Amino acid sequence: MDMASLGEVTATLEHTSLGEITARVRDLSLHGLAIELPIDAGSTLFPGDRLETLEVRADERSLFRGSGTVRRLGESDEGIVVGIELEGDGLDLAELHRRGARRSFDQRLQALGQARARNASVGSAFKAWAADLLSGLEVLRDFLGREEEALLAEDDFTRREVEAQILDAIHPWIVKEMVAARTTLNELVGGFSDEEHQLHRAYLKRHVAPLFAESPFMRRALEKPLGYAGDYEMMNMLYRDHREGSTLFGKALNLYSTNEEAAIANINRIEFLGAMIRERIERADRDRIRIASIGCGPAREIAALLNKSPELGARLDVALVDQEDRSIAYCEKTLAPLARATNARVQVIRESVRRLLTAQALGEALGERELIYSAGLFDYLNERTSRALISILYGALADGGRLAVGNVAHHNPSRWTMEYFSEWFLIHRTPEELLRLAEGLSPAPRQVRVDAEPSGVNLFLFVER
């Protein structure tokens, strides 16, 4: 959302441990916002924390008053960036409109001058790259638009058949063009400071975001309807037909965005996790192996395993833990029939990270497990929280059990396209940084190592008890 027309936007929240806090809003959408807090204050918050009292104000006017939920935490040079999902109807759109209309001409003129100054600070090479990207996307959009118009007179079957042929032909082309654009972007911004990244991201968003938003996958990342990118539905988008969109151009762009290296690594996790579960079943000396997935999302790996090998259901006792109500509801709807058909035991648990960080709550929720894994949660947790949660999860392992923690690798080739194209931010880690998260565990692990799914982009820390 363009915040320039709103003036100074702040959020005031009440938290059980912090009391009342007022912070500047650095990003705003209809149903979510991001604020920045000092490290001491931000470290007290955890994903899943509920904020019963939350107000968003633009100068003297209230844009939102209600409750919210902390969804994501990230680190910056100045502190902790907190992503919050707004409950209810979200922001007051009528007030937003009035705010924009009410600002004085002098204020708007001042904002224009500031915007021009910011534009002047954007590097010329970056501007040239952005212009080439925009031009190429517009040419492709117009070309595919004409192809669509030519099909209007055709029947539905013929139109779908020809569109599929067009997308099959355009897929490798758009991937090649966008990978070339990504390579140049990586070279241009790889050494930027946080301030330079913010400046250049804002420039690109202003010029190219409307085109990116024609891809449903990229639009959901940009709009963050649950307050953060990477929610359970975005995971579902990766696992189903990628040719989604209301136009041929949108479908083509969606094909690209769901085939970036980071997306492919995410898709690879299904088979990677499934193989790990199979291995634990084969070596288990008990009738059912007790498994837990922390931050389970849509739990597609469990559905895939049971669909492919229904005979394994009788060997599975699975606890799926997530803090998002919609994710929990999705798992209940999709896995309950599979569990009944395969005799698998599947328990779905709504629990926040803060609650998981108490051994008593975790023991009550899980009991001892032979395998505990978390595929994507740690991409959003700072080092302090990651260490604490790993210690708690390790403590819930049975003797001989394994803890597997996923984290996107520091060398992720999709990092800057995720941040610049979709405002999707992760905490990347090297293998060495992942290994350090497991230091000081008691009793000492039998083995600690780092592996990866086939692409090498999604790392996994394995801790054997």
From TrEMBL:
Residues in PilZ domain copies: 17-88
UniProt keyword Methyltransferase, yes or no: yes
Annotated signal sequence range: none
GO process annotations (BP): methylation
Superkingdom of origin: Bacteria
GO molecular function annotations of the record: cyclic-di-GMP binding; methyltransferase activity
Keywords, comma-separated and alphabetical: Methyltransferase, Transferase
Designated name of the protein: SAM-dependent methyltransferase
Organism: Vulgatibacter incomptus
